[in-house]
Known about the structure:
Elements: E1 11-12, E2 18-19, E3 47-51, H1 61-68, H2 70-97, H3 102-122, E4 146-150, H4 163-166, H5 168-195, H6 200-220
Antiparallel strand pairs: 1-2, 3-4
Helix pairs in contact: 2-3, 3-6, 5-6
Amino acid sequence: MSDVSQGPGWWLASDGKWYPPEQAPGTPGYGDASAGTGAGPTAADPVDVYLVSNEPIANWRALLHIFMGIPHYIINYILGYLRTVLIFVSFFTVLFGKKVPGGIRDIQMMTIRYNNRYVSFTLLLNEQYPPFDFTTTPADPGGYPFVTAFHPLERLDRWRCLQPILLIPNVIVLVFVLIGAIFAYIAGWFAVLFTGKQPDGISEFLVGVGRWTTRVSAYGAYLSDQYPPFSTR
């Protein structure tokens, strides 16, 4: 564990610390107390986001990633509409059945994970092209350096059908954070273009914003009953 990356393969966890490759998500012992990572979703942390590594990126990628991501943008756009419909359906399933059906829940998790992978590629957080992967499991299927993992709930109190409305104050604050993220991305874009490396501070901030938006999305989609903290940690 370190406050800064120590080399290739080191990854930034939700606690703001860097961990070695052998403790990365998907490796044996990940998230276990014996591994000592302190990272990974737990019962107290139903959703989290990790950048497995912050490695050098080819300079030319700053010019082309946005265009390379167009196919994923189209798919992600469609999946966004699908998630909206499923949230609408989930409102009634929570109101009358106090749960989100497993199939609906799993598809929502897939759409959020797909979005995160596409956005991380566009923001130059890694240079691995996102797979056209539609795996509907709570655990991240692995194979991509931007990890989104869930510990979804089986049942919800009936009043929690109002969760999307309760998010309004959080979303207002998040809008201003996202404005800051735009400036951070611009600075990181120039850094990659001229140095071939996303600065650790910018990378950490952008991952943190992704973590915040993911928690908001999960709460609004009834995947969690824990109100998202006003934090990128």
